[in-house]
């Protein structure tokens, strides 16, 4: 197996330091972020237990990036993601993964990944993209609500067809 195909091993010690076994040096989260950008395969393991900490480290990198500059995730978006944990998390995870992969594929096909031209283009397309995503989200929401209504999953859910004015008045009386 060539060096390019080998997974780079990073060990995390109790003192929270990260050690790159390939270069025999201590590294930072910024260095690991660069490995991600360079698409270099790596794995982070707890030096003592051998536990895989890769996801945890990647989440730390995202948290740092969200704290600096303009965040990707709004508070409302994070609340929405949290609500999906449970019975629908597999569906959301799969959707997000495919959506991000589609963006990466588009970047790769245009040959402009990480270039200023791509950034400028995306900035100019932002209003169009936001409008399209807004339409998509609204259509997805309607599809989801229609599916719930079809199967009668939430008969008392606001906006459910078939709710009589009596049901609404009874609900209002209960609140009073």
From TrEMBL:
NCBIfam families: PHA_reg_PhaR (TIGR01848). Residues 163-176 have a biased composition (Basic and acidic residues). Residues 73-109, 114-149 form the PHB accumulation regulatory domain. One of its GO terms (biological process) is regulation of DNA-templated transcription. It comes from Pseudomonas linyingensis. InterPro entries: PHA_DNA-bd_N, PHA_reg_PhaR, PHB_accumulat. This is Polyhydroxyalkanoate synthesis repressor PhaR. Residues 156-176 are annotated as: Disordered. Residues 9-68 form the PHA accumulation regulator DNA-binding N-terminal domain.
């Amino acid at each position: 197996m060539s060096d390019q195909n080998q997974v780079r091993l990073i060990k995390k010690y109790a003192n929270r330091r990260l050690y790159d076994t390939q270069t025999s040096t201590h590294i930072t989260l910024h260095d690991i972020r660069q490995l991600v950008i360079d698409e270099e395969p790596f794995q982070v393991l707890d030096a003592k237990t051998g536990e895989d900490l890769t996801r945890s480290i990647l989440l730390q990198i995202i948290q740092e990036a969200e704290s600096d500059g303009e965040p990707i995730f709004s508070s409302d978006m994070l609340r929405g993601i949290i609500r999906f944990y449970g019975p629908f998390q597999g569906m959301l995870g799969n959707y997000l993964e495919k959506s991000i992969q589609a963006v990466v594929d588009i970047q790769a096909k245009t040959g402009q990944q990480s270039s200023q031209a791509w950034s400028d283009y995306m900035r100019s397309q932002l209003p169009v993209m936001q409008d399209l995503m807004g339409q998509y989200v609204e259509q997805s929401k309607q599809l989801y609500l229609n599916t719930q209504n079809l199967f009668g999953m939430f008969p008392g859910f606001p906006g459910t067809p078939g709710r009589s004015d009596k049901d609404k008045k009874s609900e209002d009386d209960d609140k009073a």
